Amino acid sequence: MTLLQNTLYVTTPDAYLRLEGETVCVMVEQQRRLQVPLHHLGALVLFDHVMLSPALLGRCAEDGRSVVWLNRSGRFQARLEGPVNGNILLRQAQFRTAEDGRAALVLARATVAGKLRNSRQVLMRGAREAKSGADRDTLVKAARLLAIQIRKLPQAETLDALRGFEGDGARLYFESLPAVMREPVREQFPFEARSRRPPRDAFNALISFLYALVLADCRAALETVGLDPQLGFLHAVRPGRPALALDLLEEFRAPLADRLALTLINRGQIQPGDFDCREGGAVLLNDKGRKTVITAYQERKQETLTHPLLQQDTPIGLLPHIQARLLARFLRQDVRAYVPYLQR
């Protein structure tokens, strides 16, 4: 159970929330685990099998306090809103920002800056842990080039120019990423460049699968706060494409997906036998491999870290939810700037 930005996140399975006077009481196995004044809460977000009393549900609807249900993996299931809520105003602000070219560019720049900075952190961490001087030099050089790309971002006066800087940075990052792998692993997981739809090697298949898991969490986070996941600022809008969820994903590719992928292969938790080669050259995780990755990802989401902006201990699985709420605050003009998640 975590209280962040006036939102109570309940992740304990079979917890029961009830109304006691003007407070919310969280019961687990008939034991009182938490009691929070109602006026401190703007929303409840419930994971897995969490139950609410009818009285609490009715009070939340009456007060306009949202209640959101997510499944065990964090996928959005449902939302309760009372007769008066701010979602329409928030979505209007989202659409106005998307139609304002300059405002959309500012948000897109923040997204790309977060992505490249987090990618650089992966390389710098790899350089500190490198066993050979050649690998260390490769990673340090790539990190310096990425720093140059980050400094260029303010020069981008159009989305196309910004996407060009992002593409160049991503290429530099992926070209040097094998140096983060342990030397014996490089023979098992040869990786030369990013490939997708379909992935052409095991490492590409692994990170593509992890990106899909993180994307689902990003979409759930946006829907939880009432944003439209289809309308983004960096990614072009297309029918059926969750453009804003893809925008949010960019901040978390390196810290949540790439780092976990590297850990899994460096520790031998994922082996070449966890992948299948398909007709046409596609490589995909098999059932055993998917189970291993999903388990590791869920365990990773339970770990905690100090959020760099809030300076509060936070479960990793809630990071997309925090960023979604920070984005909503920016769109409502409650804060002057949107600060992307920056890995330490």
Automatic annotation (TrEMBL):
The GO molecular function terms of this record are: DNA binding; DNA endonuclease activity; hydrolase activity; metal ion binding
Cofactor(s) this protein cannot do without: Mg(2+); Mn(2+)
The UniProt record lists the keyword Hydrolase: yes
Record-linked InterPro entries: Cas1, CRISPR-assoc_Cas1, CRISPR-assoc_Cas1_C, CRISPR-assoc_Cas1_DVULG, CRISPR-assoc_Cas1_N
Gene3D superfamilies the record matches: CRISPR-associated endonuclease Cas1, C-terminal domain, CRISPR-associated endonuclease Cas1, N-terminal domain
Per UniProt, Mn(2+) binds at 166, 235, 250
Q: Which UniProt keywords apply?
A: Antiviral defense, DNA-binding, Endonuclease, Hydrolase, Magnesium, Manganese, Metal-binding, Nuclease
Question: What function is annotated for this protein?
Answer: CRISPR (clustered regularly interspaced short palindromic repeat), is an adaptive immune system that provides protection against mobile genetic elements (viruses, transposable elements and conjugative plasmids). CRISPR clusters contain spacers, sequences complementary to antecedent mobile elements, and target invading nucleic acids. CRISPR clusters are transcribed and processed into CRISPR RNA (crRNA). Acts as a dsDNA endonuclease. Involved in the integration of spacer DNA into the CRISPR cassette.
Which NCBIfam families does the record associate with it? cas1, cas1_DVULG
Give the similarity note.
Belongs to the CRISPR-associated endonuclease Cas1 family.
Its protein name is: CRISPR-associated endonuclease Cas1
Q: What is the protein's species of origin?
A: Methylococcus geothermalis
